[in-house]
Amino acid sequence: MTTVSLTSDYTLATHDTSSKMTFQDLTSGLKNLSSENTSSIHSLPVEVLSLIFNTAYISVQSNFDKDQQLALAVSQVSQHWRNIALHTPSLWSNILLRTAWNYELTEMCLFRSSLHPIYLCIFSDKEEYPSCGIELDFLQELIVPHLPRCRSIKFVSNYIRTDHSILRTLFLNSGSIFYPFLEDFYIECNVRHLQPHVERSVSPGNNAPKLRHFYLDGERLLPYTPPLKNVTTLHLANMKDILDVIRHCPLLETLWICDAYTGWVDDRDPYEHSSLRSLHIFGSDCVSKFLLYLVAPKLEDLVIPSVSFRDLTVLHSCTDVGSPRFPSLKSLALPLTVRDFSAALALAAHCFPTIETLILPYLRPRDFIEGFSQSIERTVFARLTSLAIREVDTKGEAAISELVLRRKLQGCPLRMIFVDGSSYQNSLLANLGTEVEIKEKDLWGDIWQAAGYMI
């Protein structure tokens, strides 16, 4: 399939949709066109201009960091394009405040977006604001009235003087504001000691019926959150109130926890999260305590890269082989510490006996084989049919071949091995023949990439 694009000499050309124009290509090209009165674009029919506008917008839309530059650029090309831009509220729906807030531009975009749902993104930084009072008045008068129109809200702050006051101005009344369009809510505040502290927990209402994705990074942020009743995906980092937050999410399906403080899991009674299916814990020394607290009968996917042998012993001592704690668990990502790899792998097999896919980011051949040989009376990971590994060398190939043969003799054969691209291209596992299918897919790389903004 081909689309129409603008080239540097202002003629029309076709290109494959797989090579999309960059942001710089489009904006610079369109602005140059607007300054060329002799350009042939001024003689093009309205229909052609409309086609160029639509295809250019579609071809670059996914590459934009949600801001106003596209709308500003296309409105300068020709009068017809300007009319289209001015009468298309969705083009002005990205409200971005960063690098010295532009009050006039923000006001213009809010006006031109009409009643269309907006995407609000605010970055607060020490070097950018001469007066905290000015920005707070601006937020109160111009931004707060438009909060009910937000489809997405993102607030990022690293400045101790402004972030708490801005949060109070924007979100202290979140519990009473109706958010009919809000789908994503994101607050990242790296300040550890906010004063004064507002004593208010998560709002119990249903004022955000479409809110599904929620990200909270920092302490004492709960008073500024909208109701979490309908949240299905939750990302929490650098906070102590994790249990309080997840208790307000009865529909929670996916939970990510990163850099949780020591002691964030206390001696509370176990709590059931009946809809939870995926759990990722990065950077915590309380993995076992949290898993003992959590009752999740539908949990299918577990990622615990920070777990250690010492941590797993806590869960192991409370796990009955005949009654798995997570009966539906199918996939486990387990980047264990090098020193205790084999012993911890055996503990994990005891704690999570139902898994079918094991994901390991690295492979120490000797410890790998020892881990699968720890138990004499039973097969380690008896239901295991898939193994995901990466960076396989010749020693790793030998270890995997031995494991494949061992499990075949035990009557629990492996069916699939996932490897990263470089391992697949080297064809190191070709000697396995038809015993097991080798598939190129870096499962651990996908997990790490998805968690990149958290860790």
UniProtKB/TrEMBL annotation:
On the tree of life, the source organism's domain of life is Eukaryota
Q: Which residues form the F-box domain?
A: 41-97
Q: Which Pfam families match?
A: F-box-like (PF12937)
Q: Which Gene3D superfamilies match?
A: 1.20.1280.50, Ribonuclease Inhibitor (3.80.10.10)
Q: Which InterPro entries match?
A: F-box-like_dom_sf (IPR036047), F-box_dom (IPR001810), LRR_dom_sf (IPR032675)
Name by which UniProt lists this protein: F-box domain-containing protein
The species this protein belongs to is: Crucibulum laeve
What is the phylogenetic placement of the source species in the record?
Eukaryota, Fungi, Dikarya, Basidiomycota, Agaricomycotina
